[in-house]
Amino acid sequence: MNSPARKPRVAGFALFTLSLAAVFVALGLWQLQRRTAKHALVAALTERLAEAPIALAPPSQWAALNPARDEFRRVSFTATYAALPDAMVYSSGSAVRKDASGPGTWAFLPARLPGGETVVIDAGFVENTMQDRAVEDRAVKKLVTGQPVALTGYLRFPEPPGWLTPAENRDKRLWFVRDHPAIASALGWGTVAPFYVDLEQPAPENGIPRPGPLDVHLKDDHLQYAVTWFMLAGAVLIAFAVWARGRRQS
After folding, report:
1. Backbone CA torsion sign across 71, 76, 80, 86
2. pLDDT tens-digit map of 164-185
3. What is the pLDDT of residues 133-152, one digit of tens each?
4. 125: Cα within 13 Å, side-chain hemisphere
């Protein structure tokens, strides 16, 4: 008498199992797609980092620059650090700087081009585990000389804050994301370029702040995640098969 009732229950559970397995397979395929895209990105960035620096594009071309095509391109130009408040950007470690694997702050300063435009410079890493404003002030004071400096670095673009990004500390002039337009607005730097420059050279005599070359070390766990999703899909199918077989035998 229970047979007619069992069939709909088995059919419904089978549909649920197939749907769940399909979701797991789709997630596994998505991870494989992300892995392919990540490898393409690493290849493109590695190629850009190895290229010789080119002249910074004139302001008339800045609007055409975009992260997909221009992030990490090496550029050279001359600018003068402005006598304006600098900003600290906290970092727990860098994925593109081997020599900045621990906590500290990046020194962000505005610099004037010969034409009067302002470009924000990430002048380098400061070993500043307590995010001490006095440490940053001593580090950047010697950079602001009023004299033009020949700079070489990498084009970078602003990062939007995430849900868990802490709010900035205006008293310390401390930020937790590299959103240089927001920093410029808060500190009165005026209109700035839509990109900032990660400084490669020159370095101060004592190396603080510490600029340097970039190297791509993007985390790649996508294959591991894909295998996990595929294994989960197989596990739910096997579990359903064992359950269905047990019901038939009973």
Report:
1. positive
2. 899 999 999 999 999 999 999 9
3. 999 999 999 999 999 999 99
4. 20
